[in-house]
Amino acid sequence: MKTAILAGGKGTRLAEETSIRPKPMVEIGGKPILWHIMQIYSHYGFNEFAVALGYKGDDIKRYFVEYGTLSGNLTVDLNKSDALMRHEKDHAPWKIDLIETGDETLTGGRVKRLQPYLGNETFMLTWGDGVSDIDIKKLIAFHKSHGKLATVTAVRPQARYGHMRFDGDRVTAFEEKPQTAEGWINGAFFVLEPQVFDYIEGDMAMFEHAPLENLAKDGQLMAYRHEGFWAAMDTLRDKHTLQKAWESGERPWAVWEE
């Protein structure tokens, strides 16, 4: 099963970083967040990806070309026509289709443009800026169990501010940035059947709008509720929070380190 990753947006809310690189290439722990996302899937045995490129897409192409050829120990023999010899592979066993989907194309349009590379079979989809400790195999099992066209992972992100509980005016508890209890949101990490492409009209379709709304209206959208860790890197503050977690060793999304 292939995994589609949308990596073409401009990331304007993270302009401090994205003025010089695409958001999926912003680093956490010295590696692009896109690498972290792919490691999550790879941990569960899914190593084939179709990445939708747009804004500064050449940066992503360049990274993976170098990642595949320059990782690990090398010998360079300038006396030979084939000057580069690799001693071992020091990278994940990934096969990656890097597909130009246009600078201005919206999320639904990017998904639609990946259709030739995903085939006529079940596929996974996520955004190029969100990480989680989700169990991908349990997610797929849930999708197969209900027989509908689409599964979205529903998450309850960490609250941005501390949460207080009261007895009258007396504070009975103070929780520093607890997981919000107000409701569930779209955390991406989709599993989709190929018929979902029929719900996307063209480049200017937002996947989060008409396609998902119509799938829900038709009774074809199911939610996999993930109670564990999930975070999206939308702002510089989010980036710093993830970096701090990485440096502290408390990095719940790094399931490949278990």
UniProtKB/TrEMBL annotation:
It comes from the Bacteria. InterPro entries: G1P_cyt_trans, G1P_cyt_trans-like, NTP_transferase_dom, Nucleotide-diphossugar_trans. Residues 3-203 form the Nucleotidyl transferase domain. One of its GO terms (molecular function) is glucose-1-phosphate cytidylyltransferase activity. Keywords: Nucleotidyltransferase, Transferase. GO terms for biological process: O antigen biosynthetic process. NCBIfam families: G1P_cyt_trans (TIGR02623). PANTHER family: GLUCOSE-1-PHOSPHATE CYTIDYLYLTRANSFERASE, GLUCOSE-1-PHOSPHATE CYTIDYLYLTRANSFERASE-RELATED. This is Glucose-1-phosphate cytidylyltransferase. It comes from Roseivivax lentus.
